[in-house]
Design goal:
It catalyses: Mg-protoporphyrin IX 13-monomethyl ester + 3 NADPH + 3 O2 + 2 H(+) = 3,8-divinyl protochlorophyllide a + 3 NADP(+) + 5 H2O. Keywords: Bacteriochlorophyll biosynthesis, Chlorophyll biosynthesis, Iron, Metal-binding, NADP, Oxidoreductase, Photosynthesis. The protein is an all-alpha fold. It has one domain: Ribonucleotide Reductase, subunit A. Helix content is 63%, strand content 3%. It contains 14 helices and four strands. The N and C termini lie far apart (48 Å). One fe (ii) ion binds next to helix 9. One fe (ii) ion (FE2) binds next to helix 5, helix 6 and helix 9.
Amino acid sequence: MNAPLKHTADATTVEEGLAIQEEQAKFDSKAATEVAMRNTLLTPRFYTTDFDELDAIDVSGVREDWDQLIDQMVSDPNKGHFKKNEDWDYVDWDNMEPQLKKEFIDFLISSCTAEFSGCVLYKEMKRRGANKDITQLFQLMARDEARHAGFINDALREAGVAVNLGFLTQKKKYTYFRPKFIYYATYLSEKIGYARYITIFRHLEAHPEHRFHPIFKWFEEWCNDEFSHGEAFALLMKTDPKLTSGFNVYWIKFFLTAVYATMYVRDHQRPAFHEALGVDPDWYAHEVFTKTSKLSEQIFPITLDIDHPRWQPTLEKLQKANADLAEATEKGQFFAKIGAQARAALAFVSLITIPAKSHKVPASTRLEPVY
Ligand SMILES: [Fe+2]
Ligand SMILES: [Fe+2]
């Protein structure tokens, strides 16, 4: 007789979490996996990097904060949390408004792919490294991301779809990023992930009538995990002041602009989803950018001026260009496609040339999730 299958939420290592999901893969659907396989500017990617350079990091300069963070992650406050329990309300997928269903499934697949992208990168770092501090951190973060991805896959399975994570690991294209770009991109994605989840969580706390799916009830603990991951990357960057000064400040500005603009465009592709949540995507974007900027002051010497008169109208132009690009691509209109691409590129240049705001970075990066 087979032992009852353990849940990803209870897995204490990434290997265990992935083995459980491998076992479930026989139920996974082709269509969802195909969506997760897509590589465009807007879809979550898989990354690889120079693992030896990462392994050479010496955290002794931030030892006290480091040990505190690691101790907290080792204590594993969210073990067993990411699974369905009595708080999981019944979801009537069959009668969900079709546009909402489509956008929500798209949201879940894209979130699952993003979680899994972190998982794969962190697990690989843990596997390749020899530096105890670094491998321990990456093992802990991979553990969390495997649980997050597993939980989203639970939700998707109820809708009759699921992403085959084993297949993705082998077949999805990996994008190479130098370690410093991994720090900027991953740090930002962890912190913006925290800001996105906590903003939705607080909004639904105040307006529970808009909570059209139970998964949002889990967002608070979820975003606390992402917050810790972001703290870890802040500490990694703190070990080398060059990473956040000189010419690298331009790279930081580039990543801030790219991450914010991508979020804006992607969210505006899901109007029915935001309407069901009772959230205006423009308000939501501004709220998330404000929180992320405030948090990123812990390590980045600049923040974007999101209240600059050019910011919002240019984001709207970028979004419009993107919608036109998608339409032209679908209809096979070559010249309309080139035109839309040029408008998108121009809008991005206009965003990135808005002067940034500078400030003095605090001596210690440590922050608490207070939103
Ligand atoms: Fe995560
Ligand atoms: Fe994370």
